[in-house]
Amino acid sequence: MNYVIIHSALAALAISALPLPAVRPGGGHVLEHARLRQETTACSDTTSLVLAHAMILAAPVLITDDNMYLNNGEPLRAFVRALRPYFVQDGPAVRCAALVGPRLMQQGLALYDRDAYGRVIASAPPQVAEHAQEIANRINEPSMNMAEMGQELTWLAQILPAVADGDLKPFFETGYPIRNLKRQQAAQVWPIVQQICQLDGDCKEALATVLPLVRQMADQVAVGMIYSMARLASGEGSITSR
Fold this sequence. Notes:
Layout: H1 3-15, E1 17-19, H2 45-57, E2 61-63, E3 68-70, H3 74-82, H4 84-87, H5 92-111, H6 116-123, H7 126-129, H8 132-164, H9 169-173, H10 177-199, H11 202-234
Parallel strand pairs: 1-2
Antiparallel strand pairs: 2-3
C-alpha cells in the first residue's frame, strides 16, 4: 500500500478542513442554549463563539471523529438557522464578522515580511539556502493565515444572512480566490481518497492516524479565532506596520 499517496491526499484535504463542533451526548449542539442579548461590545465572547462555529462549519471539508467529507452546506445551514437572530442582516455575528474581517486582513498584510527570502539567502549556510523559499514561506505563514481568516470572515458577513433564510446559493456560488482554490482542490482530492479507501482497508488505519492530529490542530485554530475576534473588535489587537 502506498502510504505516501494516502497521507498526501489527506494532507491536501486537511488544508481545507476544520472539525465539526462538539455535540452533547443527547445530540444537541453545545450552543443550543445560546441566547441573544444586548451586547456591550461588537464581538462579545458569546458572539465570537457563535461566529467561530459558523466559520468552522463553512470550511470546504468537514471532519468528524472518524471521517472527513466535502461540505454540502447543510451543517452550516442547520446551525445558522437554529441561532438565526445572530446571523440575520445586522445580527451580532454578522456585525462582528464585518468588523473583524477587514482588520485581520490589514494586520496580516502588516505582518508580512517581504524581505524574508532575501534575509534567509543572505544568512543561511549553502546546505540550507536551497530551502530558502520554503523557510521564507514558513516565516510568513502566520501573517498569510491571518489575512486569509480576515477574507473568510468578510465573506461570511456577506453570505450568512442568506443562509439564515435557508439559502445556500451564495455559499456555493461566491467566495474569494484562496477559498475557491481550496474548494476546487478538495473536490479533486476527495475522490482519490475514497477510491484508495475502497481498494485497500489500510486506508481506514491511515485515516484513524491522521484525523485526530488534524482535529487537534483545527481545535487550536478555533480557539485562536475566538480570541482574535474578541480582541480585534475591542481594539486591543492592533498591530503596527513595520
